[in-house]
Amino acid sequence: MRRPRTGPGAAALAVTLALAGCTGAADDGAVTVVASTEIIADLVRNVGGDRISVETVVPAGGDPHSYEPTPADAAKVARADAAFTNHLLLEEHSLIKLFDSNVPTGSPNVSLAESAEPYGATLIPLVENLDLDVVWLGLAVRGKGPGRTADVRLSVTAVEGPGRFAAYLTDALGQPRVYYDSADGITDADVAVLPPDAHTHLNWSFGAAGEYRVTMTARVDAGDGSPPRQLGSGTFAFAVGVDPRGALRDGRTTLLDAGHTDLAVDLDTGQVFARTDEQGDIPAGQVVVDVPDRAVEQVPDDARFAFLGAPGTRVWQLPQAVLGKHVHGEIDPHLWQDVRNARAYAEVIADTLAEVDPAGADLYAGNLDRYLGELSTLHTYVGAQLAKVPPDRRNLVTTHDAFGYLASAYGLTIAGFVVPNPAQEPSAAQVTKLTETIRDLRVPAVTGSPSPASWCRTRPRSPARPR
């Protein structure tokens, strides 16, 4: 293996990687490489040159966060001599399953983001903070368990309370997907499925004021034909429209009334617990979640939300906060926005190609050295250009919250972004809010995204929270 390199960090937009140059089309009989995205494919082409043939699964302009693969994609992956994904939950879980199920035995199947750290890549956490006036409550899985293609099932197995309980996700088009609903009794259908080491957002709805007890049980399916493994269970208390201190009398000692919290399972210990940003991990039996009267909403006059009750009915609801299916991990997966990380990706690719095709090792090493030099030149250029901007004017407003590495490398401030979920259009309210941000910061220039569908992101309220 080529010795991992280290060096000073740098950053650039994904589109600038292409400016560092591609080496040309593939010859007949070339090594076949399949990449999940065009960004990764561009890196591979620069290292592999004419000796390789590169195909991508997600088409140009497509969104890896939500792309659903086809049978033709499976056939494409099955021809790979080497395969590359980004992972760290950048790609849709079904896309990762496609690679892991179809890459031929003996062909490398490389997760670049997870392989690049020993080569000098720097990883940063994915921070979310919407400053809601109630708890922002989601679901999470800690740990990788039996592998990245496993399914972790978080089931609600019991509900006690004076009214209907439901938890659902609202997708980018406003369509609700119900995970838990006590109206017809608790069944095997009351389940949410997540990949390992992932997190997602939900709306949590209660039909009447009072104290609720919601019991959650977890199990994991490795996806290899072995029986699912049962994990732990835990019961969470919710104080809905009542004094939450009353619910503390049964031994629950921790009140959650603000901030970001996940009801979570640990794949290593099997424990079901509350994972909070401020207070750390709290066992399920010690938690009371406050759902105050300020969380009261009216069920909209929309047949899609009839499961919540009749139009105009009051419900107490903790909001999903970000619209759309939005499954992610603890680490920001957009590593390539830092040129140091792009360099590390290229080195992983070179070592992998040399492993698959030893006769081409010298060519790959030469291409790598040339490409690393071009990336270094790019880093110097971008740094010099951004250095001309006064530090107090380096406020970056983007469509998608994907530029944390760029901001970190060049001292920029992420002042705002439109949407957290790609492939959705912002509402009029989000456009107004972003316009106010741009005006307040006196942003002097606005540049359109080269791929709106790929970079869009929003902070809306749920459709069940009408304005």
From TrEMBL:
<protein>
    <submittedName>
        <fullName>Anchored repeat ABC transporter, substrate-binding protein</fullName>
    </submittedName>
</protein>
<comment type="similarity">
    <text>Belongs to the bacterial solute-binding protein 9 family.</text>
</comment>
<dbReference type="InterPro" id="IPR050492">
    <property type="entry name" value="Bact_metal-bind_prot9"/>
</dbReference>
<keyword id="KW-0813">Transport</keyword>
<dbReference type="InterPro" id="IPR022435">
    <property type="entry name" value="Surface-anchored_actinobac"/>
</dbReference>
<dbReference type="InterPro" id="IPR006127">
    <property type="entry name" value="ZnuA-like"/>
</dbReference>
<dbReference type="InterPro" id="IPR006129">
    <property type="entry name" value="AdhesinB"/>
</dbReference>
<feature type="region of interest" description="Disordered">
    <location>
        <begin position="445"/>
        <end position="467"/>
    </location>
</feature>
<feature type="signal peptide">
    <location>
        <begin position="1"/>
        <end position="25"/>
    </location>
</feature>
<dbReference type="InterPro" id="IPR022434">
    <property type="entry name" value="ABC_LPXTG_lipo_actinobac"/>
</dbReference>
<dbReference type="InterPro" id="IPR006128">
    <property type="entry name" value="Lipoprotein_PsaA-like"/>
</dbReference>
<keyword id="KW-0732">Signal</keyword>
<dbReference type="Pfam" id="PF01297">
    <property type="entry name" value="ZnuA"/>
</dbReference>
<feature type="compositionally biased region" description="Basic residues">
    <location>
        <begin position="458"/>
        <end position="467"/>
    </location>
</feature>
